[in-house]
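Chapter summary example.
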Amino acid sequence: KQRQERQARDNAGYLPSYSEAVQKKITEVGIQHISQDESRSFAYDAAAAVIAGGRPFSLFESRRWRYFFTPFKPGWKPPSRAVITRILPEFYQEIYDEVFKHITSSEWFNIIFDASDNVSGHRIVNISVQVPDGPAFYWKSLDTGDEQHTAENWIENVPAHKVERSNSRADQKYNSFFSLLRSRDPARDWSVRKDVRDELRSQDCPVLLPEAVRIIKDSSFWLELEATIAVLKPVNDFQHVSEADGAGIAHVVNRWLQIKSKWAEMREADQFPDIPWDDIDAIFKARLDKQTYDIHWIADALRPDTTGPNSKLPPSVFARVQEYLQKQLENDDEYHRALSEFTRIRMRTGGPDGLFNKRSAVYDDGFRPAMAWQCLLNQGSTLARVAVKYVLEAAGSEPNSTKK
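The structure predicted for these 404 residues follows.
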């Protein structure tokens, strides 16, 4: 029924006739024969685009899509849902081989766990793999059913004598690692106890006990743990700062760059020579691209404390601002006025109304971005009408905002 309704809506749409030039091309090219191999190659590429982009398999069944494709390849019929479904296993294997090649050729990779609840209230755990020189690849999803993911539940399912301590905040890796480091001396004392040595020699020795004792006695493990904690410390510190000062989305990019700056200082000091800084830089860039959107970069550029004659704005960010203002302000006069105000506030050059003069109070350190733009809004700034909506937004309060 849904397919019939969709087809009816599609058929009701008016398809304009092609221009004379396009129609001539269709007539000339349409005479050419399309081989079966060529047709299948086109179908495979189209199906790959649909699958990789997460689009509905019925995408090309629309008459308007066929209308769109005809001038490029007259006589070729875009793949239907059934055709794409048949191609799926082959394309999936191709992606699988590509991912496997990336993983096996990389010395370092991350396993990323993300979770959400489905309509039945079941916890769905999504697992991805990320290599340093590329994006994260989806691996698999696990439906954990109605299992309760709480520390109390795990304690109930694990024999009490095997639980020394529990940490219900699994996402706080820094705290977990730091706690592990603090247990280094007690763990070493435990590993040389007589009862532990006796258990290692017994036939009923637990499978993982020898490996655990070996790791505890391995000095390189603790040195690597110290290096890991040092790398995570800036992330942990700035996370707490964001939570403490109620940072908005205007601070997201700055916090990311502060983390990168701290890592650059550590790399320069060469305190931990074994840290793979090139791999960390590649992972950092991939995560930054994934977790920040145009609005984060624009909000950062709208912070008065980042402006001034010596503050250079990357051309890519300026282009984002232009595009964003065009979408937000449909009136051309308002758009040009807002863009002019943006340039003036970045350079602190005042303007006809003097709102952005370098001596303006909005540049004072005591003014937070939200306060500054609220002040400019009260004085009639066009740009402030757009800026105040997002600079006031708390980081993480909407899907496109990520707190860091």
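To summarize the output: The first helix runs from residue 2 to 12.
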